[in-house]
Amino acid sequence: MMATESSGVTLSARVILDDQDITKSPTDQRNYRIVELDNGMRCVLVHEAEARQASAALAVAAGHFHDPHHAQGLAHFLEHMLFLGTKKYPDATSYQSFISAHGGNHNAWTGTEFSNYYFTVDANYFDQALDRFMRFFHEPLFAQKWIEKELQSIESEFQLKRQDELRRLYQVHKATSNPKHPFSKFSVGNLSTLKDQPNNSLQQQLRDFFQRWYCARRMTLVLLGPQSLEQLTELASTHAQAVKSGCADVWDIDEPLYLSEQLGIELHVNPIKDARRLIVTFALPGINDDYANKTTSYIAHLLGYEGPGSLFGYLRDKHWINTLAAGGGISGSNFKDFNINMQLTEQGMAHRDEIIAALFHYIQLIREHGLNPWRYDERRVGVMNAFNFQEQPRASDLAPQLAVNLQHYLAEDIIFGDYRMDGLFQPKAHQFLDCMRPDNMRITVIHKDLPTDSIEPIYGSHYAVHPLSQQQLETFRACTPTGVKLPDPNPYLAEPWQLQSISSDEPTGLPRAKQTAPALMSWHLHDIDFRQPKAHLYLGFQLPNVVATPANFAQTRLWCELMLDILNEQCYDAEIAGLHFNLYPQQQGMTLHVTGPAHYAPQLTNTLLQAMLAPEFCQQRWKDLRQRLMTNWRQALLHKPLNFLFSHLNVQLQPHTYSVLDLAEELERLSFEDFCASSPQLFTQAQVQLFAHGDVKAEQLAPVHEALSTWLGLAEPLAPIDLTPAALDTLPNKVTVNTQHPDHAVIAVIQSMQNSVQQQGVFMLLNQMLQPRFFAQLRTEQQLGYLVGTTYLPMQQYPHLLFYVQSSRVDNQQIETAMNEFFDDMPTLLADITEEEFDKARQSLTQQLTEKDSSLRSRSQRLWSAITQQDHDFSRLTRIASAIETLTMDAFKAESKHLFNNKSGQMFLSACPANFDRSR
Ligand SMILES: [Zn+2]
């Protein structure tokens, strides 16, 4: 027993494990302790000496599986209601305002068997924030007024998901599984599932659910901050002790996920969008007890392999599939769906049974030749490299993750559990492989033109279920050989990773630039601050021909996709070993980003550049990928209207940014011959900026410089491309687009054409202080929609402030009216801001801006972004921070007033469904 003294009361907590007993990555500087409070709540305390923010997360073993049959969605509704008032803090906006006023953010989710609540806040206010947060779990009010309002929010969330392809498929999945298994329940809830019942009000239902499932024994709490482990223990005891202990209600699912007639079937589903997908699902038993061996992830690794001779390579070369992912699928206490999920080509639709037959052949191959300890060990080496040189997760991600891990894993494994691979356990592997047979399989085919005969009642998807035919079963069982093989040993996993030593002439601190050719600027920083033998290489290509016309831009995008496709097979072993690359066109030309173990990253970059020199494209593959791009682009109007508006805003304001609908038209006009003939011209004029960061030495870059010069010449420097955004006073101040999504959405934009650090500071402060007010008024109070918020967006350092709402309840005019009322109220809102609030906002923003980099990755991103923004002394963020520090409240208010009065610097972008009839 460990006892701590606090205000005269003795608090006690039993230590379960201390730091030395918990398996940690060597890069992990945090200290951990796991305790159990008197009421049975288990807590993970995490001390991070330099943290400026503190985080908390509480996971509870209560999710939508626990919903009563007559009130589906109740767990989710309860998650919303907990935020809206407790005995001590009855005001519904109190928690949210407190968190945002102190530089934090908060969120929550409801899953199948767990729900998770979490927040971050400035570390000095942790105690006060916990006082508000922990009361959710012992004295929520469930006030009638807020039940009524928040039901609207649930309904909006439901309406929003009606257009969500995954959500619709998920509900068909539920409709075709065992109705006695809790998975079959509807998880989101809506106005028809959540309501008062005779003699049982919704308020009472909430109280009963809370009473039954929300007890300390079902909860795990994580507190993370700069406080000592003793102080954190005391915080946990102080704030969590009032949660009732409760009984850990036994929760066992004794029903199987599928009835026998729900297996050995083919399920046809019509999507909203133009998609072609084949998902093969095998019904496995639960895998919670297998986490130390990771048998399914080992099998998935073999099935999903994409190197030479792989199943994927075979199916792609037949031009039947574009992508293949293995191992995903729902899982829970007594079930695991093992999915092989493939995006089909047009041809592939006609060869589905052959695809599945090839899959069965590969499974046979694994069973007979794939269960080798050396393969398992190779996989473990890769996973251990990832663990030993793990980039430390951000505190705000770590806390909720640990809370859930403590529910699933042994206490010593809360960090290591996701990585632990004790060995290949043959009986388990055979058990799972034996489950991979036609009569234990469900095939899901997703396509618009499939005939269907049923309608899923909640989201309205059309589907049909067919038992597999005798002929199908025979095809699958025949196991016709396809010439595929299991992966060869991976050369990239032969050598362990290690740090290179720093020599005295290496630059440290900030990146240094070196002009290595007239049109090649090479930035380099050998950086081992994070003790990571990893590197990031960014190559920014300025290519005037690429950005000159939408036709060229579309062509470049297709060129990048084809290159990635070619390189993917060639470099798949490298990918498995942790080397990753991406290639995409942007406003100035193109970017290549390579990251991974430092002794391979420059070498891989070189290999990639060599391949780009004179690529040979396959015509059929060109057709498949062009089709895929055009289909994706053409569906933009079906996406969430807010997403469409954000990209539309970019097209309106940013030079050399094109509408995806226009890009699709351009690709339609392009022939394979023209593509091959004209692609080299995209690269005839080029200038390159290279940034190599991490455990990489200057001399490793010489081959990369050489490959770049060989490919692109780089003998002539180019004039810079002007990326200044369009001024709003040159554009119409109202733009409406017609979309094919039933929701309405509006983004209001406020722009400044001054790109000084002072002006950026004003915008950031405004965003910080208006965000909670806007949310409270338009979402919590008026319930206009589920997606409501503000965001700060700089474009080439020109600040923009965006206010957005998406609604399934009201139309775009009503949203605009509500926004205008909010803006008209600005003088009062500004007058309400107190000196204290202003100081806190200033303080929390300057803290965020000057926060130390948390990982190599985030430092790389920050430095690269500075290089591309011409911030060559890397001081912009600090200068914004000092501008904020010296800004007075009066100057801030005067400037804000001016911004809101200047109507020509504003724009309303609206989305309205194409067939929307205002008179209805
Ligand atoms: Zn929700």
TrEMBL record:
UniProt KW Protein biosynthesis keyword: no
One GO BP: proteolysis
Cellular component terms per the entry's GO annotation: cytoplasm
Coenzyme PQQ synthesis protein F-like C-terminal lobe domain span: 765-864
Residue stretches making up the Peptidase M16 N-terminal domain: 43-176
Residue ranges annotated for the Peptidase M16 C-terminal domain, each copy included: 204-378
Record keywords: Hydrolase, Metal-binding, Metalloprotease, Protease, Zinc
Protein name: Protease 3
UniProt source species: Pseudidiomarina andamanensis
